[in-house]
TrEMBL record:
Keyword Transcription regulation in record: yes
The UniProt record lists the keyword Cell membrane: no
Origin species: Actinomadura vinacea
Entry protein name: AraC family transcriptional regulator
Record Pfam families: AraC_binding, HTH_18
Domain HTH araC/xylS-type: 179-276
Taxonomic classification: Bacteria, Bacillati, Actinomycetota, Actinomycetes, Streptosporangiales
Length: 280
């Protein structure tokens, strides 16, 4: 992906980095919808500026800046300048990051990055190096550089219990009605209830449930459901299913509907994601 002049994105995995996905992209008009990851999103801006909503504020990351979004944190992403931005992203799982932190002797707890944007030239150099190695499939170099890059990044983290998605009992701390509503949505991707029916099923009013659900998850129920559908779509695409079949199995109206939501969350359309996900 050299000489990128228009919008282009490549999302892939490398067998030397189990539990880690990679993205290299240049975006100009593309906008990520409000979404969250099960694991971390760690990125390096190579040119341009990305802006993203995060934790009730708007962050701005320019060339050379590193970003770290913790698991479960709802955020967006869009161009901060007319020419857009180009970046490299690592998506390591909670288990991967926690394991490396433990190997380094960090205090018990899941790594938590308090600042979503940091300046650290050495950590940026290491992230770029592991990303480039991951493109070429050198297993020894890729895995070694990855550990060095994470070690550098963890200087900006602190241990914390209970971050992200289901980690540390976050779900258990949600209001009972929200937990029950989430369970209903997870159980029926194909024919979910209306907001009124969902509220009745969990013993709440429609507007109180809507407010509580958004406060607990960062998203209203319909947007949360689409995130669950995209997550399941990724699992099915990883298993080799074609996008049209995936759309039918995850409750999207058709392949175009799947593609729209998938690209707004992942950054690439489902077909391109499926083709690039084969391990090295």
């Amino acid at each position: 992906m050299t000489g990128m002049t228009g919008e282009v994105a490549h999302y892939w995995s490398n067998s030397a980095l189990p539990g880690v996905d990679l993205l290299r992209a240049r975006f100009v008009t593309h906008r990520f919808s409000r979404h969250a990851h099960d694991g971390y999103a760690i990125f390096l801006i190579e040119s341009g500026v990305e802006e993203f909503e995060h934790g009730g504020s708007v962050e701005r990351a320019g060339a050379g800046a590193l970003g770290a979004v913790n698991p479960g944190v709802v955020h967006t992403g869009y161009a901060g300048v007319p020419e857009g931005w180009a970046y490299r992203v690592l998506y390591p799982s909670i288990e991967v990051m926690s394991g490396i932190a433990a190997d380094l002797g960090a205090p018990a707890g899941t790594p938590f990055f308090p600042d979503p944007v940091v300046r650290d030239p050495e950590a940026a150099r290491l992230l770029r190096a592991v990303h480039r190695s991951g493109e070429h499939g050198d297993a020894l170099a890729t895995s070694s550089l990855f550990r060095a890059a994470v070690a550098g990044l963890l200087r900006h983290a602190r241990p914390r219990t209970g971050i992200g998605g289901e980690a540390g009992g976050v779900a258990e701390r949600m209001p009972a009605a929200v937990r029950a509503a989430r369970e209903i949505l997870h159980a029926d991707l194909l024919d979910p209830p209306s907001l009124e029916a969902l509220a009745e099923a969990v013993g709440a009013g429609a507007f109180p449930l809507l407010r509580a659900f958004r406060a607990a998850t960062g998203l209203p129920p319909h947007a949360y459901l689409n995130q669950v559908r995209v997550r399941e779509a990724r699992r099915l695409l990883d298993a080799g299913l074609r996008p049209a079949e995936v759309a039918a199995r995850t409750g999207f109206a058709d392949q175009a509907h799947l593609t729209r939501h998938f690209k707004r969350t992942v950054g690439v359309p489902p077909g391109a994601y499926r083709e690039a996900r084969a391990p090295w």
